[in-house]
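#structure-requests
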Amino acid sequence: MVDTLLMVKAEEILEKIEKGKPVEYENVIIYGDLDLHRLDLPLNRAKQKIVKSIIKIEYSVIKGDVFFDHAAFAGLVDFDGTTFTRAANFSGSHFHEDAGFSDAQFQREANFTRSHFAIDANFSRAKFNDADFGRARFDTFLYLTNAKVYTLNLSDAVFSEGSSIHLKDFNFSRIVVRWNIIKDHIPFNGSVYLTLTRNFRNLEQFEDQDNCYYQYRKEKQALSHKFFPKIFDYLAWFSCGYGVRPSHTILLSLAIILLFAGIFSAGDALQPIAANDHLQVKAIVSQSDAFYFSSMEFLGKTPQNFSIVEGYEVLTVIETLLGWLLMALFLVTLSRVMLR
């Protein structure tokens, strides 16, 4: 099928680009290197070669290298369905209009490092070996829906406010990126979030793994309309941060200790234990004493120098049970975060 396609020399295309003419081809085989370095094109302030031509090379095969790096494309760039058999270098280029690479195939590394996509960057259903978008900038949308890649590098990429990256059904072995770069730019999709969580774990980026999972649970909770699952999610959030925030357990434990200390203090529920009964009546239980008593009860230890007034004993039982539960939860959460 490929051998029956019309053959076009790369020089023909380069000549049109140099003259600013539209480049429109479909179902062709291009022989030779598409190398903008050969062309005498004006430069902008960023020392990028200004390409005024609309470039549409669709459902074709490029048999040579493509060196479209450090170029400023003023018009549409469309390589939908095209196969790049050799190098595809677009590094340091600026796409002022849509960049279309849907259904494209990159048989060698696709280099888009430091590229700037002012409008949509569409790589839906594209197939890569490795794709490098390190330090690239995306002002609107990056579509990788149904795309397939071995390694996607998005390290130090920049996503402008309001931009988003679409990864639904994205098939990859690993994505090199930090969670804080993409966390505000991914439309919620449970399978996408969980896949990214596994990716961070495989790369031993455990902090990113925890943060990704935490945001997944938060957004899932916000979208839930079922009463009991939502209540369970709230409990999981403030008790242990969905199992990845031991600090939540510590803060909740402190809040419970303070709550019971306040009840004991306000209700005059504590009595000092002294050898002299007269001294016992005169002694005043301070708020720090109430906090101490509450802390000991939370830890399951009965203070030897205070007794509880009749009628308040059930509160000590409740606090001790809560203490045991939260200490167990804290140990489980801490071990999950620390021991891996």
